[in-house]
Amino acid sequence: MNKTINIKTSTLFLIAITIVILTLSSIHFIIRPTNRVIYTWKQTNDLSYKVPPPYYLSVVENDLDLSRFPGSFARRYYIYVGKDEGKPVYGYTIDHSFHEDINHINNIEGYIKESKVSWTEQGVEFEEKSGNKIFIPKEFINER
Prior knowledge:
The protein is α+β, with helices and mostly antiparallel strands. The chain is about 30% helix and about 30% strand.
């Protein structure tokens, strides 16, 4: 009888461990950063920081923001400035939340693509359609 209880207990324990591992793995794959580039703007060729052009500014999709759980599962984003046009590898990054108004929440990619980027001798400025601006000085760009 004792052997039967031990076998059932160890089987239940293995099942429980398997469920925990599968649950944690699923959560990881759901919330992990995608690092998908939403849109990229290329530096104008007439500017040269310490390194010859071009630099790129990209808006990149990050992980899920679980801070509003269970009410919302919005993606987080970051702005990347560096020499990489495709997937960001090495450069300056800054987390950025786009304003959640009802007009663009269902088309965040279209909203991001309507942003403007201005390259100047002082640095680069990212401006959303809403007017929200982020300025990144050239010293931050060159440090990376």
